[in-house]
């Protein structure tokens, strides 16, 4: 009788360990996906900010050139 209990307990422990391993793996995959998404968002933000700065500089340069053109005549 105790051998059956031990066998059942051992089997249950193995199943529990397998479930825990699967849960850890799923969590790691989710974290990896979150990290990848965060990196992608940071890259896109950096590109957007760089473009906005470039556009601002170009607009300021065009404005100063237009002001210089008005002063020439």
3D structure, described in words:
By secondary structure, the protein is mainly alpha-helical. The chain contains 1 helix and no strands. The chain is rod-shaped and about 105 Å long.
Number of strands: 0
What Rg is obtained from the alpha carbons, in whole angstroms?
31 Å
Q: Which word captures the global form? A: rod-shaped
Low-confidence stretches: none
Count of DSSP helices?
Answer: 1
What is shown here, in short?
Helix content is 96%, strand content 0%.
Strand-helix topology:
Blueprint: H1 2-71
Keywords:
73 residues; mainly alpha; 1 helix; 96% helix; rod-shaped
